[in-house]
Write a structure and sequence with these properties.
This is Flavohemoprotein. FAD binds at residues 190, 206-209, 397-400. The active site is at residues 95, 137. Heme b binds at residue 85. With 412 residues, the chain is of the alpha/beta class. It folds into three domains: 4-146, Globin-like (Orthogonal Bundle); 154-253, Translation factors (Elongation Factor Tu (Ef-tu), domain 3, Beta Barrel), CATH 2.40.30.10; 269-396, Nucleotide-binding domain of ferredoxin-NADP reductase (FNR) module (Rossmann fold, 3-Layer(aba) Sandwich). Helices cover 42% and strands 18% of the residues. The chain is built from 13 helices and twelve strands. It has helices spanning 4-12, 14-35, 45-50, 52-66, 75-88, 94-110, 116-146, 235-242, 278-291, 312-321, 336-341, 352-358, 373-385; strands at 154-164, 169-176, 190-195, 204-209, 219-224, 249-253, 269-274, 297-303, 325-331, 346-347, 366-370, 393-396. The strands form two sheets. Strands 4-3-6-1-2-5 form a six-stranded antiparallel β-sheet, with helices on both faces. A six-stranded parallel β-sheet has the order 10-9-8-7-11-12, sandwiched between helices. Strand 9 (325-331), helix 11 (336-341) and strand 10 form a beta-alpha-beta unit. Helix 6 packs antiparallel against helix 7. The longest helix is centred in the first third of the chain and has 31 residues, at 116-146. The protein is globular.
Length: 412
């Protein structure tokens, strides 16, 4: 337990961290990777270049400072991060390295303002916070290994099948190379895929949502090709598309994640997918249809056009077979062929007025959404404008967690 003096010092630094947090975390990663380049085998290089990892860590450090006297209030955040850590292979021995470099970065950025007393208080607080993460992650490693067909690190899987779903998205069906059973998962969870890519100095690990229902002898991930943008094209995703073939092996972590469908409820669910954000929602949809066939589902796919619309025919077929499934496609830039074939239900973007038309029970439904950052912010704001309660709204960012109310809308 922290004494009151330490708590007071930590809380007094919260305003400074709110202003300088991202500068501190950027410096932290620079210092840590210079001293320990081997950690680049674990961290996502693309998120580092985009600044998302730095912002996410800054948000976490600030939250810890604000809640230092009631850390139990940030346990949900701790567990969310711990899921990612377990799937990446973060171990207790990594925490002293992080602590040493985080304190050094605080001192480096704040200079004389970071007195010995402040650094000492943060060192003590970091020890408490690190112990909390280590304890939660220890339980997660043990649970992953103890599960039927489970394991606690990375396991070899073979690509049993590779299926093109759209111009951008390809699915990979992964089966354990050793032929043994694989652990089940909760729809919405993800796995980490570890690859050694020729010409790359460090190992790359990426997390991909599982896109089919649990209970199969395979895991399915559906991967979007990354092209253009302000950072180099997706190294791992494009490698999977271009180089990984049926029969090839990859290393896979046990399923993880807390963005999961509530299977203890019979409330209607509304699944709002932006582009490749459909992947965890496909898993949810398939599982609910298999196990709760009477439960109402509204599935909404928001994509540019039919060329990049993955799983369309699959969902349409299920829409005909399952009266409880209500499916809608929203195209922001439909092609002439899309218009002629009537492949979508709405042109433009998801709006409050349209959602209120297609969702039978607006305030009584659970909402799950995933997609690009701008889509996420828009959907969240729309649901709040519709009067949907916070406890009925669930979402997940691909990559480090972000504050959905501060995400900038992407240019269209």
């Amino acid at each position: 337990m922290l004494n009151q003096k330490t708590i007071d010092i930590i809380k007094s630094t919260a305003p400074v961290l709110e202003v300088h947090g991202t500068t501190i975390t950027k410096r932290f990663y620079e210092m840590m990777f210079t001293a320990h380049p081997e950690l680049l085998n674990i961290f996502n290089h693309a998120n580092q270049r985009k600044g998302r990892q730095q912002q996410s860590l800054a948000n976490t450090v600030y939250a810890a400072a604000v809640h230092i006297d009631r850390l139990e209030e940030i346990i949900p955040v701790v567990k969310q991060i711990a899921h990612k850590h377990r799937s990446l292979g973060i171990k207790p021995e990594h925490y002293p390295i992080v602590g040493e470099n985080l304190l050094a970065a605080i001192k480096d950025v704040l200079g004389d303002a970071a007195t010995d007393e402040i650094i000492g208080a943060w060192a003590e607080a970091y020890g408490v916070i690190a112990d909390a993460f280590i304890g939660v992650e220890k339980e997660m490693y043990e649970e992953a290994k103890a599960a039927d067909g489970g394991w606690d690190d990375f396991r070899k899987f073979s690509v049993a099948k590779k299926v093109v779903e759209s111009d951008e998205i390809t699915s990979f069906y992964l089966k354990a190379t050793d032929g043994g059973p694989i652990s089940t998962f909760v729809p919405g969870q993800y796995i980490s895929v570890k690859l050694e890519i020729e010409g790359e100095e460090y190992t790359h690990i990426r997390q991909y949502s599982l896109s089919d229902a649990p209970g199969k002898d395979y895991y399915r991930i559906s991967v979007k090709r990354e092209v253009g943008g302000e950072v180099p094209d997706g190294v791992v995703t494009n490698y999977l598309h271009d180089k990984v073939a049926e029969g090839d092996e990859v290393l896979v972590s046990a399923p993880a994640g807390d963005f999961v469908v509530d299977m203890d409820s019979s409330e209607p669910i509304v699944l709002l997918a932006g582009g490749v954000g459909v992947t965890p929602l496909m898993s949810m949809m398939n599982h609910v249809m298999e196990t709760q066939p009477e439960r109402e589902i509204v599935m909404i796919n928001a994509v540019r056009n039919g060329d990049v619309h993955a799983f369309r025919d699959n969902i349409l077929a299920k829409n005909l077979e399952h009266p409880a499934l209500h499916y809608y496609a929203c195209y922001s830039a439909p092609t002439d062929a899309d218009r002629e074939a009537g492949r979508y239900h709405r042109e433009g973007f998801v709006t409050k007025e349209w959602l209120e038309q297609v969702v039978p029970d607006v305030k009584g439904s659970q909402y799950y959404f995933c997609g690009p950052e701008g889509f996420m912010k828009h959907v969240f704001a729309t649901l709040k404008d519709m009067g949907v309660a916070d406890e009925k709204i669930r979402f997940e960012f691909f990559g480090p967690a972000m504050d959905i109310q501060k995400v900038e809308v992407e240019s269209k």
